Amino acid sequence: MLNIFLFAALPYLAVCVLLIGSIWRYRTNKFSYSALSSQFLESKRLLWGSVPWHVGILIVLLGHLFALCFPGLWGALVANHTILLAVETTGLVATVLCVVGLGALTFRRATSGNLQLVSTPVDFAVLGLLGAQVLLGLWVAIAHRWGAAWAPASLAPYLWSIATLQPNVDFVADMPGLVKLHIVGAWLLLLIIPFSRLVHIFSLPLEYLWRAPQKVVWTNPRRFAQAEEQITAGAEDRRVFLKAGLGLSACLGLLTVGTADKLVRYFKGAKGDPQREADLLDKKLKQLNQTAEQRALELERIQSAYIKVARLDQLTEKKGMYFIDYQMRPALAFLDAEGLPLLISAKCTHLGCTVGSDLDGEGRILCPCHISYFDLKTGAPNPGAPAKAPLPRLGWALLDDAGTVLLSEGPDGKREGNADPDKLKGAVVYIARRFEEAVS
After folding, report:
1. What does each C-alpha distance from 414 to 115, 352, 390, 440 come to in angstroms?
2. Could you give the domains of the chain?
3. How many angstroms separate the CA atoms of 203 and 201, rounded?
């Protein structure tokens, strides 16, 4: 339920508030539709915060946008380890620039008397949110390395599901906690934009390109005007709060109408179109067949001491054969250098994706979701991979046509029986319940 609120409801609430609030602010107070530059109030320390912050955040945002808008092209680029290393290093340096710049800007606003007079609680809330986002991004980059390779594969489909009004939180449900917090922080930043100085990101001063040069002079009347603005700030804040409340109420109303429409259509049912009813019935029948097949597999694993995998002569050294183990998880069967079975789990130890069945030139199998390579002999992931734990080995037994166990090997590599090649011709590979019970 929490995932649905944070990753399905919150995005739509944030987008509605962003659109309605930004339009309302522009129509009612165009003058505030900018960053309200504070350079006149304090300029010496502004340079040391503004430049690194803007350089760093632009690099980070452009990288995020490119990866999420073009995940296929991005994935092909970062599949090259040199490019991936360059991208990760650039992102890390840019994030450090963001931390330095934002820290300088926060210190400047908190210690300058002139800036304190024109600062609002919203300003410090925005600085806090931005700081949390930047630090979370830095933490994710350090704790979950190579995020440039594995993150877009899950986040791009998630954002696409949001954009097409078919939110699917499953894409992010199994993400690490730090990544989830980072996503929630992004939605909260969108939510607060219409009520903060961040609204200036929508202001494009294109007229600056052709207007005549201007020189701004600080005069006493301007100081008097600022003093008057400070006196009326309290009343203005209350009006902003009330208008923001109305905007949020309107967003909630729109969400309620959309939900009610779905409920009405659900209980009303589909129109009596024979072709549509036939397609729907066919879809339900396929789902029932899939469920029946799954239940049959579960029943077989409950009742049987041995589950067939394949004939020994069907296995190869370079390409694995998929099968389902006793825990209903995917697994792979290979042939080792001795001509005997080698069974290994196909469920990635990072986020549970199914690993590939092809062996590369270094004797590894790949998890395509987040780029982890696992050594087939040991199951260990490559250094620096998102996955940290090795793929578990599975025990196996070779039975003849009469059902006699000729040779078996447990997950620990201990063998029992006769490994005579002549006797093993035509043998069938099975997984055994006793090995599962020994492991558990």
Report:
1. 73, 28, 19, 17
2. 2-205+217-256 (1.20.950.20), 306-439 (2.102.10.10)
3. 6
Compute the distance between CA of residue 63 and CA of residue 266 in angstroms, rounded to an integer: 41
- pTM of the model as a whole: 0.50
Q: Which of 345, 423, 426 is nearest to 380 (CA)?
A: 345
Token pair of 378 as six digits: 């040991």
Q: How far apart are CA 300 and CA 295, in angstroms?
A: 9
Buried b (16+ CB within 10 A) or exposed e, 160-195: ebbeeeebebebbeebeebbbbbbbbbbebbbbbbb
**Burial class of residue 45, CB neighbours in 10 A (0-12, 13-18, 19+):** middle
Task: Compute the radius of gyration of the chain from its Cα atoms.
Answer: 30
- Token output for 394: 């599975």
Residues of the chain with pLDDT under 70: 31-43, 114, 116, 118, 203-242, 254-273, 437-440
CA 434 to chain centre: 39
57's CB contacts (< 8 A; 6+ apart) are 94, 98, 101
3-state secondary structure of 269: coil
CA dihedral 129, 134, 138, 143 (to 10 degrees): 30
pLDDT digits (tens, 9 = 90+) for 110-150: 787 767 676 778 888 888 888 888 898 888 888 877 777 77
DSSP result, 134-198: HHHHHHHHHHS--HHHHHHHHHHHHHHHHHTT---THHHHTS-HHHHHHHHHHHHHHHHGGGSGG
Q: Please return the burial class of 404, using the count of CB atoms within 10 Å of its CB with bins 0-12, 13-18 and 19+.
A: exposed
Is residue 106 a contact partner of residue 128, using CB atoms and an 8 Å limit? no
pLDDT in tens, 30-69: 766 665 666 555 567 777 778 888 888 888 888 888 888 8
